[in-house]
Write a structure and sequence with these properties.
about 300 residues, alpha+beta
Length: about 300
């Protein structure tokens, strides 16, 4: 197994735009030739658009783009800008005299990080889509960029005690099989290293110099009767890619297997107020076992989460 760049998986373009002053942004993943895609939502409070397309019984077998964004439900307008750019460039399903791109979106809650009244819109989505076609694979980079601009973790005791996080990717190749992940880590609780189990990010102590002595889980137990007001300011969103050939139903299972990475690295996770979501996209025709790819997807997502808090 060797590490590769996320763009080495092929057949995908990734563009990012952020508003650093407002602390929000979008990351746009485009499959110019369309791609099968699945989705698994484990959190109880998702901000999403066109998620019904990912249902195995839905008619659409492929989509053209996925948007990971900030702004919570307000930021869902960004997908409209992505659709506009793709339609102008002939990417989508021909319907009469128009082209209709299918674009799904999931957002984090970042309204409490800097600005609470500035969020991604159609203009930002359009610009991110255009940047996805710069060079060979777009302008993706890890850190405080795109959807990760306003991401934070460890918010149980308020934003003044949180750790800044961001967006990150990790990808590997095993023979001709390639699997990679992008994640925007925006969690209520702590982040743990999947290798040694150590807490690496989360709730800080009162002066912000180190992690709090008690973990987020331990703090939650102490606050059982009076959860803090910021309990809703979370959600981790991600996407896993592979060049293995899978249909939408199989990809929904792959996304579900990848959620194990969230459980390994984020505590607590999948709460009633999270929108924790993972997309899974097939970008090639390599024959591979779904169980093998799912296990690899779990691994690459764990590493991407780890990198997203080491910015």
């Amino acid at each position: 197994m060797r590490e590769i760049n996320i763009s080495d998986i092929g057949n995908v373009k990734i563009g990012q735009v952020e508003n650093s002053d407002a602390g929000t942004g979008v990351t746009v993943i485009i499959a110019p030739d369309s791609a099968a895609c699945g989705l698994d939502i484990r959190g109880g409070g998702p901000a999403s658009r066109e998620s019904g397309l990912m249902e195995p019984l839905a008619a659409a077998e492929v989509i053209h783009g996925v948007v990971l964004g900030g702004g919570s439900a307000f930021g869902l307008d960004a997908a409209g800008g992505v659709m506009k750019y793709l339609a102008e460039n002939g990417i989508g399903f021909p319907v009469g005299d128009v082209v209709v791109p299918l674009v799904c979106q999931s957002d984090i809650f970042d309204l409490g990080y800097k600005s609470s009244n500035v969020y991604p819109d159609k203009e930002m989505g359009y610009k991110a889509a255009s940047l996805a076609f710069e060079g060979n694979s777009g302008n993706f980079k890890s850190g405080n960029f795109g959807a990760g601009c306003g991401a934070t973790v460890g918010k149980l005791l308020g934003m003044e005690r949180c750790t800044k996080s961001g967006i990150a990717s990790y990808a590997v190749a095993v023979g001709e099989l390639k699997v990679g992940a992008i994640v925007c880590t925006n969690a209520l609780g702590d982040i743990y290293d999947y290798v040694d189990g150590k807490r690496i990010a989360g709730v800080l102590n009162t002066d912000g110099s180190a992690l709090n002595d008690l973990s987020c889980e331990e703090l939650m137990y102490d606050l059982v009767a009076n959860p803090p007001a910021d309990f809703a300011a979370n959600t981790t969103i991600g996407i896993v890619f592979t060049n293995a050939k899978f249909n939408k139903t199989q990809l929904c299972k792959l996304a579900g297997m990848t959620h194990d990475a969230y459980a390994r690295c984020i505590r607590p996770v999948h709460t009633s107020m999270d929108g924790d979501s993972i997309y899974a996209m097939s970008l090639g025709n390599v024959d591979a076992s779904l169980d093998v790819v799912g296990t690899l997807a779990n691994h690459v997502m764990c590493e991407a989460i780890k990198r997203s808090v080491k910015i």
